[in-house]
Write a structure and sequence with these properties.
Pfam families: fn3, VWA. InterPro entries: ECM_Assembly_Org (IPR050525), FN3_dom (IPR003961), FN3_sf (IPR036116), Ig-like_fold (IPR013783), VWF_A (IPR002035), vWFA_dom_sf (IPR036465). Keywords: Extracellular matrix, Secreted. By secondary structure, the chain is mainly β. 12% of the residues lie in helices and 39% in strands. A hairpin with a 6-residue loop joins strand 22 and strand 23. The longest helix has 17 residues. It is flat and about 145 Å long. The protein starts with a strand and ends in a 23-residue tail after the last strand.
Length: 614
């Protein structure tokens, strides 16, 4: 790829994209940029900008904001969504004003714009896209889902088949990143596109725009605009500077380059040191005028994100993010006890990113330091603090949901515990226990005797060490069944059932349905009731039907034995003692005995001459 290129991503953030899909747009931009990880970034190499647009375009990442790919990638991850309408034409006009008219793009750099959109622009685009292309900008278009393919072709550079990409949905967008990256590499490696009606370039008599970039602890890059004339080569001279800024005697070095070179990567420098650089054009029989610049190497990079990731009774595990560069290894220091004094040192190879510090004191604060060791020497230390765990007991234990043969034990977990030992002892002295893993916080103790008192203890386990115990007592139920279940107040469509209360019951489950000989008259039903209920009114029953009614006792998630009875609803009644009480020439008074459960009566009559009436 060319040493100099300006790349601008113009990304649609309209409401039609949406915030969730916008994340996939960010991932797409991130993956495309990441393919240039081996390319020089900054003023003398590849510069990247991201412009987002909805109703109004906005520069989220400017061409001059960052000089390393790592900084650019972090900035892409931090892009935020605002929404709006997709005004692509307005966004293209914004690029013309900010990039072309304002001269933000470098004249000797390849210039590329990548448009990413999901829909059709709400304003004109063709003329504005032509202005970009006339200014020497190569335009790629990436359409997604509802994007107007005809509009994409009008915006893109020729040949459009190589500059238009399309994805059916946002999930397929990622599959285009490699294809686009390859085409960008080709475009950026070619000479800049010609600019229509471009003014004459100003004559240059010496190297200019000498800049320092890619500063590291032992290297940096120099880049310049070539000198005019018949240049046969370049000389690069550099000296380290003393504290007041003066040259250090006998420290000058020289690099000779071909005339085709306009950048050099200077290596074998000292960390955290200022240098004075001079670049001269070499002609057939003379040296040209010098271009000079000062630059400084960075300090040796330390590890980052140094932290304690795991605490134990006598150990601390630390982890870190390795720095870039050629490492020899690491040195970890931790203070010894006050009695012995001094520090303990551990040397690790360059392949490590974590380490377990052992044989520490319980319940003690430690300050741990780490140095990254390079051939040039150690980095500055990075420190973190950690505290070993204290041998603590379980804070609380609860015994609940007792039945005739089970008790449920619950307890609070202890930080750092590798497991728990649960023990239960009957009043007769029978002892049983179970070892449980670190994730346990409850256990159902089974196989107990009815009506017996049990002492339950739990203690945390730390590897081979047992923590203090905590104790609680509970008594199993003598009986877990309902002794009395009766049905009363039976009518044609209802019945009242009641039963005796069971101590310790969390609730009851009542079921009812017709006996086999009455199947088809009604369906089976059931209902859960709370532990304070001892009666329930069954309603909407079928008349003259025998029902099986069962009741079960609930102890938490455990169901005790049930008890069952049968009851039969009353048949429908009939009218008796029906008679004429009195009559006149136009009316008749009737009387009859009432029928229990009846809600209405139906009366029919007719005259003797067979004419019907009501």
């Amino acid at each position: 790829m060319a040493e100099r290129a300006d790349m601008v991503f113009l990304a649609d953030e309209s409401w039609s994209v949406g915030e969730s899909n916008f994340q996939q747009v960010k991932d797409f931009i991130y993956n495309v940029i990441r393919t240039f990880e081996n390319v020089m970034f900054g003023k003398t190499g590849l510069r990247v900008s991201v412009v987002l647009y909805g109703d109004k375009p906005r520069i989220s990442i400017d061409l001059t904001d960052y000089i390393t790919i790592e900084e650019v990638l972090v900035a892409v991850r931090d892009l935020s969504f605002q929404g709006g309408n997709a005004r692509t034409g307005h966004a293209l006009s914004f690029l013309v004003d900010t990039l072309i008219t304002a001269g933000a793009l470098r004249g000797d750099a390849a210039k590329v714009v990548i448009l990413i959109t999901e829909g059709k622009s709400s304003n004109s685009v063709e003329e504005l896209a032509a202005l970009l292309k006339d200014a020497g900008v190569t335009v790629f278009t990436v359409g997604i889902k509802n994007a107007d393919r005809n509009e994409l072709r009008k915006i893109a550079s020729d040949p459009v088949e190589e500059h238009v990409l399309y994805a059916e949905d946002f999930q397929q967008l990622g599959s285009l990143s490699r294809k686009l990256s390859r085409r960008l590499c080709i475009t950026a490696s070619e000479p800049p596109q010609p600019v229509k009606q471009r003014e004459n370039v100003e004559k240059i008599t010496k190297p200019r725009d000498l800049t320092v970039s890619e500063q590291n602890y032992n290297s940096l890059r120099l880049t310049w605009t070539p000198a005019n004339g018949k240049v046969t080569g370049y000389q690069v001279l550099f000296d380290s500077l003393s504290a007041p800024g003066q040259d250090v005697p006998m420290d000058q070095r020289q690099i000779v380059l071909d005339a085709s070179e306009s950048t050099v990567f200077v290596t074998d420098l000292k960390p955290n040191t200022k240098y004075f650089f001079t670049v001269l054009a070499v002609y057939a029989d003379v040296l040209g005028e010098p271009a000079t610049v000062k630059g400084k190497t960075t300090s040796i990079p330390p590890v980052t994100n140094f932290r304690v990731i795991e605490e134990g009774l006598s150990s601390l595990k630390v982890a870190w993010t390795p720095p870039l560069g050629k490492l020899e290894g690491y040195k970890i220091y931790i203070p010894k006890s006050k009695k012995t004094g001094g520090t303990s040192e551990k040397i690790l190879g360059s392949g490590f990113s974590s380490h377990l510090l052992e044989n520490l004191q319980e319940d003690k604060d430690y300050t741990i330091s780490i140095y990254a060791v390079y051939p040039e020497g150690p980095s500055q230390p990075v420190s973190t603090m950690g505290r070993t765990l204290k041998l603590l007991p379980v804070k609380h234990i609860w015994l609940q949901n007792e039945t005739t043969n089970t008790i449920q034990a619950r307890w609070t977990q202890v930080r750092g515990a590798s497991g728990y030992r649960l023990t239960w002892v009957s009043s007769e002295g029978s002892v049983q226990n179970v070892n449980l893993g670190e994730t346990y916080s409850y256990y159902m103790i089974q196989g107990l005797q009815p009506g017996a008192e049990y002492t339950v203890t739990v203690n945390p386990i730390f590897g081979a060490t047992e923590g203090p115990i905590i104790m609680a007592k509970a008594t199993t139920l003598s009986s877990s069944a309902v002794q009395i279940l009766k049905a009363t107040d039976i009518t044609t469509n209802s019945a009242l059932v009641f039963w005796n209360s069971v101590p310790g019951a969390a609730g009851y489950r009542v079921t009812w349905g017709p006996t086999p000989e009455f199947f088809g008259r009604d369906r089976p039903r059931q209902l859960a009731l709370n532990g304070s209920t001892t009666a329930f009114h069954l309603q909407n029953l079928a008349h003259d039907t025998e029902y099986v009614i069962s009741l079960y006792v609930l102890f938490g998630a455990v169901e005790g034995p049930g008890i069952t009875i049968t009851a039969r609803t009353s048949p429908l009644g009939y009218v008796s003692d029906f008679k004429v009480a009195s009559y006149t020439s136009a009316s008749i008074s009737l009387s009859w005995s009432s029928v229990p459960g009846a809600t209405k009566y139906k009366i029919t009559w007719k005259p003797d001459d067979k004419e019907e009436g009501k």
